[in-house]
Amino acid sequence: MCGTGYTQLRSVPPFPHRTGSLISLPRSNDYRPSIRSFSKELIMKKSILIIGSSRGIGAELAKHFVDTGHNVYGASRSRSNDGEWIKGDVSSAEGIEKLINKISDKRIDILIFSAGVWEEKGFMPDFSFLDTKDDETRHIMSVNIVAPIEITKRLVKNLSLSNNPRAIYLGAMSGIEQSASKQVAYSASKFALRGAIQGLRKALSNEGIGFTVINPGNVATEEVLSDIKEGRFKEQVPIPISDITSTVDWLMSLSSTVEVGDVNLSQKNGWQVA
Question: DSSP label at 255?
Answer without folding.
Answer: -
